[in-house]
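Structure representation.

___
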Amino acid sequence: MQRNLTAHAKVYAHLLATLFAAQHIGGKLAQVSRGPRFLSLSARLNDPRQIGRALKLSEPLALASKTENVIAQRDAGYVSYQIELQQSYWQWYTRADLPDRAAVGLGVNRSPVTFGFDDDPHSLFAGATNSGKTEALKSALVAAIGQYTPDDLKLVLVDTNGELSDFMNAANLALPIASEPNDVENAIRFVAAELVRRKTNNTKGAPRLVLAIDEVDDLPDADQLRLIAKQGRKYRINLMIGTQRASQKTLPSILDNLTGRYVGRVDNAQASAMMTGHSGMSAHQLTGKGDFLSVLPGGRAVRFQVALATQADFNTLPRAEVAPVIIEPAPVIDLPDDDTTTGGRPELTIEYNTLGRYLAHHSLNQALSISRADAIFGHKRTLHTRYCNALAELITGYKSELKRIREEQ
């Protein structure tokens, strides 16, 4: 099989060189790497100003190589072309294959992709049906449990679809798994009340408390989740949110705070931009079933295969009897914003003139990466993400209304 892959790589390299020559793009192939479901060809350009033209070669390369999809991305000083392999070459992993207990999957050349709370206190696990989104969340939960003792990490799990039952009676649980509406509301109140307590008492060194919610399409207690997202980091309170449709409508005022992004296959390019926070990530061209992107600062992403948590992993989890804790509804849970940075994002406004300029780049099919947004508009990641999200919702609304008008005519 390795010999066949080497032969494929030589053919793909020749095709890429031919396309470069035809488009008058100066550059050379620097590296060929094996991904779980793709071969990655990395090319260094002679003239970085040709990056836009080079990225547009993904479709011609897919056609020439007779493969389903090619994803082209800027990768440090290179342009990488991820050429999808036939299914017979796909690799699947379980957590037993991981070299690090903090890892959630393996990428190019079996390099581990890790999960933690230090750099990204709140994380989003997103993807359409059959993307492997819930499996990614479960693997991350096992990774988190593996890094802490039950005294150092407490979990509050919200699971309305019965997907997280393998964690039942895990010793790290602060409450029984919440699945019924009343229990879900109680679980979120529990975490919000703990945030109030820690802030009021200026508590330091408390156990890390993680609220993990799978499928938050019908978001309960939005105000309390918003409070946790904005102020939780300073008090070691974190969010892990799983959803099929991430937008400011389904995740009001907390989407920007979910800085850890793990995104599987989505429905279209607009959904890709919304869930990754960047245009041009092409999450809609992933293969599904655990094929994921881990989004990094600077508009880059690492493509990896989620390592499944198996029954063997769940059998090793420490177990204990978990007693319910009932939190009475408070009339108002209102905390003033912290004066110091707590991991939340400041409220940002959209300038319509600038949004129009974003739309112009979109209309010309020019991928507006975070580096280009910084150079053109002075936008860093947070503000760039806000504009990409606003643009995606604008385009979706425009298309929907245009369709409705045409149907009425």
Observations:
- The longest strand covers residues 300-308.
- The chain has three domains: 2-88, 92-315, 352-408.
- The CA atoms of residues 197 and 203 lie 8 Å apart.
- The radius of gyration is 22 Å.
